[in-house]
Structure formats: C-alpha cells, structure tokens
What does this fold into?
Amino acid sequence: MIHADKAGGGAPYVLAIASGKGGTGKTLVATNAAVLAAATGLRVVLADCDVEAPNDHLFLRCVTESASPVAVPVAEVDPSACSACGRCRDVCAYGAVRILGASAIVFDELCKGCGLCVDVCPEHAVLEAPRRVGEVVSGPVEGRPGLSLVTGRLDVGQVKSPSIIRSVRAAAAALAGDLVVLDAPPGVACSAVAAVRGSDLLLLVTEPTVFGLHDLELSLRLGRDLDLPMAVVLNREGTGEADIEGLCRSWGVPIVARIPFDRRIAQVYARGDLVADELPELAQVLPELLEVLPGISRRGVMSL
It folds into this structure.
C-alpha cells in the first residue's frame, strides 16, 4: 500500500510524466497511474498540462466544479498620445513593438506582458489590458473516489501555452491532494518546461525506436538542466532495436517500468477505456512503478 508522508508541511508529491515526442504513450501512463494510485487510498490530482490538445478527459469523466478563464496582460498603444519616440520598441526584448508611421503598434502574439514598454513611455501612451488565452476546468472524476482532474485548454488562435499550464498547476496544487500527476505536453519547448519545472520526479515515457531514442536524449538534457530526478518508462517494448537501455545507463537514469507491445492495449486505448480496468495483468507494471518512487525522488515523501 502506497501512502503519502505528509512531512514537510503537507505539500503533495508532484510526478511529472513527459515525453520527447508525441505518441509514446505518455497519456496512457499518466491516466492509468493516477487511477491506480487513487485506488490505494491516495488523494490524487491528475493535471492535464497538454493544453493545446488535452485528452485525459476522454478516459476519465470529470464532474465540472470549476471553470475559470485565463487571461494575460498584453500591451496596447493609444495612437493619439503616442509620439513614435521608439523607446518602447527599443526596450522590448521580444520584438513585439514596432513603429509604423506616427505611432507604435504591438503584435499581441509576441508580447510577454513584462510591462517594460509601459514603464519607459514618456507620453503614458502604452497601457496593459487583460487578454483571454484559455481556461482551466476542474472537478472530481466520476466513479473514482479520491481522484480529481484538472484540464487546461488553450483557445483557438492563441499561442501562450505556458500561461495556461501555470494556471493548471496552481489549480491542481489548490486541491490539496497527496499526489499530483502532471501530464505534460510532448517535446522540450517552453510549454514542457512550464509543465515539469520543480516537480519531484520527471518520468519520461519512450519507445525503442530511432525517434524515441533521439527525443529521449533531448528530454534527459532538459531534466538535467532543470535539476530534476528522472526515471524512464519503456513503452511498446519489443517493437524496435534502439538502445534505450544503453542511453539510460550512460545517463545513470533507471528504467522503472516496461510495457510490452500488445495489440490489446491499443484496442483498449482507442475505445477510450483504461488498461487498469480492462487488462489488469498488463497494468501490473504501473503499481510497480509507483512503488519505486521513494528511491528516486529527492524529497522521498512517498513511501511503502
């Protein structure tokens, strides 16, 4: 039986599940691990941080209790007050401000809301206004005692995924669970960094293919740069010849679970069902994965 040691002020254990590329089985691992952990008596929050394409809700029916918009500050210019002096353009590190004709203009997609352009404008012609970029929805999972789901959704046409992800993580932390499982977006870009930064363990899901090997190394570099304890789940074992084990040995990162290639897993996943429910004999690798957490995490708040 796994339980949470609430030493250290009762902060939840944060397990980030990520991958260097899409399609490795990250969501398969995240949803089933969260369900199995909740079945042991833990209060578990599954946070879907893949805000451009969230899909955890396809496998877990969430009873919505909260739905909150996410807005970010975006600079706006009053052309009637602007003298086109160029100070706002010169101070912007992101190239979001340009001088066109007699006034400055702001490209919303590039603006990071840092406020420097507002501070340096001598005419007070630059202001900041909130701009909606998405929403965060949360609530308990129907039929799964102890399990809650938090989902972030980026609005169509928006590009500021990290803002949504930070709101998802804040909402998950506010639910005061014993374990927070972060289903991170694939890759190693800004959105992935926002999702996994500061987690207690970065669990990387990969496959034994050339692409899996290449992108796993990128993810390992990201975890090292963020100073995160790491472990690997090898999915679809037996389908390729890439030396995942050799790469993990060279990095000193353990493979803590191996999921065999099995057509039944794909069938269950395609139906929107859970391996934990439909194929318990294959799902046994996931409880084993949860049991090794104490030996890997620097905090050690999970124990047998």
